[in-house]
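Suppose you are handed a protein chain with no further information: no name, no annotation, nothing but its sequence. What can you learn? This example shows the usual starting point.
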Amino acid sequence: MAVVEGKWVKLEQNGTGPGARSSHAIAIVGQKVYVFGGEFTPRVPVDNKLHVFDLESLTWTVADVSGDIPPPRVGVTMAAIGDTIFVFGGRDAEHKELNELYSFDTKTNKWTLISTGVVGPPDRSYHSITADDLYVYVFGGCGVSGRLNDLWAFNVAENKWVQFPSPGENCKGRGGPGLAEAQGKIWVVYGFTGNEADDVHCFDLAQKSWAQVETTGEKPTARSVFSSVAIGKYIFIYGGEIDPSDLGHLGAGKFSGEVYALDTETLAWKRLDDKPGSGGHPGPRGWCAFASGQRDGNEGLLVYGGNSPSNDRLDDIFFFTPLS
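A reasonable first move is to predict its three-dimensional structure. Written in structure tokens, the prediction is:
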């Protein structure tokens, strides 16, 4: 049955949380949300603490960590495979792009620096990440000398990076695209190429080939830095910047507050009737931290913080559950 609507729920927060921020990242392991990086003042990393939000008690704590603790950064990404979180890239306080890959063991609370320098993808920030049971995939972002369109995967079993073929000129380098794995393919959705883009591309993991996808239906307007998640055959996107600020990262552009679903079988978009539940609707925003998770046995999209149309950083948490 097709997904036609969904419900937002605002989660209460107990304890001292990370505070308002944007350009940060989250990953969910079990019923715990791990938060790292971000900014309150534009381009100034807030901290390098690992904040933890318990989805059952709705309580914040700060993890007591050891090992190779990453320095503060913005425009960073995180993804979880099993009990391990992987953190890649970002931009440091000197506005330098990074390519360090770290792992964090949620059982031992230990950080490990896995790769940096000439190993793995080149330096970048505001890229996108997704994962399956074996690979952490990294695509695009802002590189040292321009926007990137390369796709890499880190094999967690063999502990090594793999670079996939280039998508070619049709898929321009971009920052802030959606990235998801569905139906045996890696999907690149929209992003900022110098302008907000509205194209969709996919990489067939079996055939090792790229294709540009022509979508139909209620197509979203061009956008970047939105929240996205794959659930089954659907890719859900929420929010994002639909008209960039003249001040770049220093200002807020025009944001969307809508939810759309892309059916990766029919290639049709559907704008969902996203109803406010307990606590209301998150409204327009971008530059959020987001991840897939489960609440009350239902899989959905968790969104934390971000930037508002008034250029204020946010510190609220919402969970979106798609409904048929």
